Amino acid sequence: MERKILSSFIVINLVLCLLAGFPVQAQNSNRPPASNPPKEQKKEVDEEAFPLYNGVTVSVDLWGIGSKAFGSDFLSSEVAVDVNLKNRFFPIVELGYGGTDAWNDNGTHYKSNAPYFRIGMNYNALFKKKFKNYLFVGLRYAMSSFKYDIATLSVDDPIYGRGIGNPNQVDDIWGGSLPFNHKGMKGSMQWFEFCVGIRAHIWKELYMGWGLRFKFRTSSSTGEYGDPWYVPGFGKYGSNTMGVTYTITYKLPF
Q1: Which residues have a Cβ under 8 Å from the Cβ of 57 and sit 6 or more positions away?
Q2: What is the pTM of this model?
Q3: CATH number, domain containing residue 192
Protein backbone atom coordinates (compact mmCIF):
# COMPACT_ATOMS: atom_id res chain seq x y z
CA MET A 1 0.00 0.00 0.00
CA GLU A 2 2.78 2.41 0.93
CA ARG A 3 4.61 1.56 -2.29
CA LYS A 4 1.53 2.49 -4.36
CA ILE A 5 1.14 5.78 -2.50
CA LEU A 6 4.84 6.60 -3.03
CA SER A 7 4.60 5.79 -6.76
CA SER A 8 1.50 7.94 -7.11
CA PHE A 9 3.24 10.80 -5.30
CA ILE A 10 6.27 10.63 -7.62
CA VAL A 11 4.10 10.63 -10.75
CA ILE A 12 2.08 13.62 -9.50
CA ASN A 13 5.30 15.56 -8.72
CA LEU A 14 6.69 14.86 -12.19
CA VAL A 15 3.47 16.06 -13.85
CA LEU A 16 3.45 19.24 -11.74
CA CYS A 17 7.11 19.94 -12.61
CA LEU A 18 6.42 19.52 -16.30
CA LEU A 19 3.37 21.79 -16.14
CA ALA A 20 5.27 24.41 -14.17
CA GLY A 21 8.27 24.43 -16.51
CA PHE A 22 6.33 24.56 -19.81
CA PRO A 23 5.27 28.26 -19.64
CA VAL A 24 8.83 29.27 -18.73
CA GLN A 25 10.23 27.29 -21.62
CA ALA A 26 7.66 28.74 -24.02
CA GLN A 27 8.44 32.25 -22.82
CA ASN A 28 12.19 31.69 -23.27
CA SER A 29 11.72 30.25 -26.76
CA ASN A 30 9.79 33.36 -27.86
CA ARG A 31 12.45 35.71 -26.51
CA PRO A 32 15.05 36.70 -29.22
CA PRO A 33 18.71 36.01 -28.44
CA ALA A 34 20.49 38.98 -26.90
CA SER A 35 23.31 38.82 -29.44
CA ASN A 36 20.99 38.91 -32.51
CA PRO A 37 18.90 42.12 -32.76
CA PRO A 38 15.48 41.92 -34.42
CA LYS A 39 15.51 42.15 -38.21
CA GLU A 40 13.16 45.14 -38.21
CA GLN A 41 15.52 47.14 -36.02
CA LYS A 42 18.47 46.29 -38.30
CA LYS A 43 16.48 47.35 -41.35
CA GLU A 44 15.69 50.71 -39.75
CA VAL A 45 19.39 51.28 -39.04
CA ASP A 46 20.29 50.48 -42.67
CA GLU A 47 17.68 52.90 -43.96
CA GLU A 48 19.08 55.65 -41.77
CA ALA A 49 22.68 54.96 -42.86
CA PHE A 50 21.84 54.63 -46.57
CA PRO A 51 18.79 56.76 -47.39
CA LEU A 52 16.95 56.21 -50.67
CA TYR A 53 17.45 59.83 -51.74
CA ASN A 54 20.83 61.36 -51.06
CA GLY A 55 20.92 64.56 -53.10
CA VAL A 56 21.34 66.01 -56.58
CA THR A 57 24.70 67.06 -58.06
CA VAL A 58 25.59 69.24 -61.05
CA SER A 59 28.90 68.61 -62.85
CA VAL A 60 30.77 70.65 -65.48
CA ASP A 61 33.34 68.96 -67.71
CA LEU A 62 36.44 71.12 -68.15
CA TRP A 63 38.50 68.70 -70.24
CA GLY A 64 37.16 69.78 -73.64
CA ILE A 65 37.52 73.50 -72.90
CA GLY A 66 41.01 73.04 -71.46
CA SER A 67 42.26 70.89 -74.34
CA LYS A 68 41.00 73.47 -76.86
CA ALA A 69 42.91 76.19 -74.99
CA PHE A 70 46.09 74.11 -75.39
CA GLY A 71 45.72 73.66 -79.15
CA SER A 72 43.22 70.84 -79.74
CA ASP A 73 41.17 70.90 -82.95
CA PHE A 74 38.00 70.04 -81.04
CA LEU A 75 35.94 72.06 -78.57
CA SER A 76 33.42 70.43 -76.26
CA SER A 77 31.68 71.42 -73.07
CA GLU A 78 28.97 69.62 -71.13
CA VAL A 79 26.88 69.78 -67.99
CA ALA A 80 25.69 66.66 -66.16
CA VAL A 81 22.94 66.30 -63.54
CA ASP A 82 22.72 63.13 -61.45
CA VAL A 83 20.51 61.95 -58.58
CA ASN A 84 22.14 59.93 -55.78
CA LEU A 85 19.82 57.03 -54.89
CA LYS A 86 20.46 54.76 -51.90
CA ASN A 87 24.04 56.09 -51.87
CA ARG A 88 25.01 53.70 -54.65
CA PHE A 89 23.07 54.36 -57.89
CA PHE A 90 23.23 57.59 -59.93
CA PRO A 91 20.70 58.13 -62.73
CA ILE A 92 22.45 60.76 -64.84
CA VAL A 93 21.58 63.10 -67.71
CA GLU A 94 24.30 64.90 -69.68
CA LEU A 95 23.84 67.79 -72.11
CA GLY A 96 26.78 69.06 -74.14
CA TYR A 97 27.89 71.13 -77.08
CA GLY A 98 30.78 70.24 -79.36
CA GLY A 99 32.37 71.52 -82.53
CA THR A 100 35.44 71.93 -84.67
CA ASP A 101 36.74 74.28 -87.36
CA ALA A 102 40.03 72.85 -88.60
CA TRP A 103 41.97 71.05 -91.32
CA ASN A 104 42.35 67.31 -90.99
CA ASP A 105 45.39 65.20 -91.90
CA ASN A 106 44.15 64.73 -95.48
CA GLY A 107 44.15 68.45 -96.21
CA THR A 108 40.39 68.85 -95.92
CA HIS A 109 38.78 71.76 -94.13
CA TYR A 110 36.02 70.51 -91.86
CA LYS A 111 33.53 72.54 -89.82
CA SER A 112 30.77 71.31 -87.53
CA ASN A 113 29.08 72.25 -84.26
CA ALA A 114 25.98 70.91 -82.55
CA PRO A 115 24.55 69.83 -79.18
CA TYR A 116 24.50 66.23 -77.98
CA PHE A 117 22.66 64.24 -75.32
CA ARG A 118 23.46 61.34 -72.98
CA ILE A 119 21.41 59.42 -70.43
CA GLY A 120 22.47 56.52 -68.22
CA MET A 121 23.35 55.19 -64.78
CA ASN A 122 26.41 55.15 -62.51
CA TYR A 123 27.16 52.69 -59.70
CA ASN A 124 29.26 53.82 -56.72
CA ALA A 125 31.52 50.99 -55.55
CA LEU A 126 32.34 52.89 -52.30
CA PHE A 127 28.76 53.47 -51.13
CA LYS A 128 29.34 51.65 -47.81
CA LYS A 129 32.32 53.79 -46.86
CA LYS A 130 31.95 56.65 -44.39
CA PHE A 131 33.88 59.18 -46.46
CA LYS A 132 32.32 61.10 -49.36
CA ASN A 133 34.52 59.87 -52.21
CA TYR A 134 33.15 57.92 -55.16
CA LEU A 135 34.52 55.15 -57.38
CA PHE A 136 31.98 54.54 -60.09
CA VAL A 137 31.27 52.54 -63.22
CA GLY A 138 28.47 53.47 -65.58
CA LEU A 139 26.68 53.00 -68.85
CA ARG A 140 25.34 55.68 -71.23
CA TYR A 141 23.15 55.91 -74.30
CA ALA A 142 24.09 58.96 -76.40
CA MET A 143 22.99 60.65 -79.60
CA SER A 144 23.87 63.67 -81.73
CA SER A 145 22.25 65.23 -84.79
CA PHE A 146 24.42 67.77 -86.60
CA LYS A 147 25.36 69.55 -89.82
CA TYR A 148 28.86 69.73 -91.25
CA ASP A 149 30.81 71.46 -94.02
CA ILE A 150 33.62 69.90 -96.07
CA ALA A 151 35.88 71.86 -98.40
CA THR A 152 39.23 71.16 -100.03
CA LEU A 153 41.53 72.59 -102.67
CA SER A 154 42.39 70.72 -105.87
CA VAL A 155 45.54 68.61 -105.42
CA ASP A 156 46.68 66.82 -108.59
CA ASP A 157 48.66 63.60 -108.82
CA PRO A 158 49.10 63.03 -112.59
CA ILE A 159 50.88 59.65 -112.20
CA TYR A 160 48.86 57.59 -109.73
CA GLY A 161 45.76 59.68 -109.15
CA ARG A 162 45.92 58.96 -105.43
CA GLY A 163 44.72 62.35 -104.30
CA ILE A 164 44.10 63.11 -100.66
CA GLY A 165 42.60 59.85 -99.44
CA ASN A 166 38.85 60.44 -99.62
CA PRO A 167 37.23 58.35 -102.40
CA ASN A 168 34.55 60.99 -102.86
CA GLN A 169 37.23 63.51 -103.82
CA VAL A 170 39.15 61.43 -106.39
CA ASP A 171 38.52 61.53 -110.15
CA ASP A 172 38.70 57.84 -111.13
CA ILE A 173 38.91 58.66 -114.87
CA TRP A 174 41.52 61.41 -115.11
CA GLY A 175 43.33 60.94 -111.80
CA GLY A 176 44.03 63.58 -109.24
CA SER A 177 41.39 65.13 -107.01
CA LEU A 178 38.52 67.45 -107.75
CA PRO A 179 37.66 70.79 -106.17
CA PHE A 180 35.31 69.93 -103.33
CA ASN A 181 33.05 72.27 -101.37
CA HIS A 182 29.83 71.08 -99.76
CA LYS A 183 28.09 72.87 -96.92
CA GLY A 184 25.23 72.00 -94.61
CA MET A 185 25.37 68.22 -95.00
CA LYS A 186 23.32 66.42 -92.38
CA GLY A 187 24.54 63.62 -90.16
CA SER A 188 23.52 61.79 -87.00
CA MET A 189 24.92 59.14 -84.71
CA GLN A 190 23.84 56.98 -81.79
CA TRP A 191 26.28 55.19 -79.52
CA PHE A 192 26.81 53.55 -76.11
CA GLU A 193 29.46 54.47 -73.57
CA PHE A 194 31.06 52.44 -70.79
CA CYS A 195 32.44 54.78 -68.12
CA VAL A 196 34.81 54.42 -65.16
CA GLY A 197 36.00 57.21 -62.90
CA ILE A 198 36.51 58.74 -59.49
CA ARG A 199 35.00 61.70 -57.69
CA ALA A 200 36.84 63.09 -54.65
CA HIS A 201 35.44 65.42 -52.01
CA ILE A 202 37.60 68.57 -51.83
CA TRP A 203 35.67 71.18 -49.79
CA LYS A 204 32.16 71.41 -48.33
CA GLU A 205 29.82 70.50 -51.22
CA LEU A 206 32.48 70.62 -53.96
CA TYR A 207 33.95 67.55 -55.66
CA MET A 208 36.55 66.95 -58.37
CA GLY A 209 36.87 63.90 -60.57
CA TRP A 210 38.38 62.12 -63.56
CA GLY A 211 36.74 59.66 -65.89
CA LEU A 212 37.33 57.50 -68.97
CA ARG A 213 34.67 56.85 -71.61
CA PHE A 214 34.79 53.95 -74.04
CA LYS A 215 32.41 54.76 -76.91
CA PHE A 216 30.86 52.23 -79.31
CA ARG A 217 28.84 53.39 -82.31
CA THR A 218 25.52 51.64 -82.88
CA SER A 219 24.09 53.55 -85.87
CA SER A 220 24.87 56.60 -87.99
CA SER A 221 23.82 58.49 -91.09
CA THR A 222 26.06 60.75 -93.17
CA GLY A 223 25.83 63.20 -96.04
CA GLU A 224 25.89 62.29 -99.72
CA TYR A 225 29.38 63.63 -100.44
CA GLY A 226 31.47 62.29 -97.59
CA ASP A 227 31.62 61.05 -94.02
CA PRO A 228 32.04 63.55 -91.19
CA TRP A 229 35.48 63.93 -89.67
CA TYR A 230 34.18 64.82 -86.21
CA VAL A 231 30.89 64.00 -84.41
CA PRO A 232 29.92 66.29 -81.48
CA GLY A 233 30.01 64.29 -78.25
CA PHE A 234 31.55 61.21 -79.87
CA GLY A 235 34.84 62.48 -81.30
CA LYS A 236 36.53 61.42 -84.54
CA TYR A 237 34.17 59.50 -86.79
CA GLY A 238 34.63 55.73 -86.56
CA SER A 239 33.22 52.57 -85.02
CA ASN A 240 34.64 53.25 -81.55
CA THR A 241 36.81 55.72 -79.68
CA MET A 242 37.80 56.77 -76.17
CA GLY A 243 37.28 60.05 -74.31
CA VAL A 244 38.43 61.68 -71.08
CA THR A 245 36.52 63.90 -68.65
CA TYR A 246 37.69 66.19 -65.87
CA THR A 247 34.77 67.46 -63.83
CA ILE A 248 33.99 69.94 -61.09
CA THR A 249 30.86 68.91 -59.19
CA TYR A 250 28.60 70.75 -56.76
CA LYS A 251 26.04 69.01 -54.58
CA LEU A 252 22.84 71.02 -54.36
CA PRO A 253 21.54 71.84 -50.83
CA PHE A 254 18.33 69.81 -51.12
Answers
A1: 81, 82, 84, 207, 249, 250, 251, 252
A2: 0.69
A3: 2.40.160.20
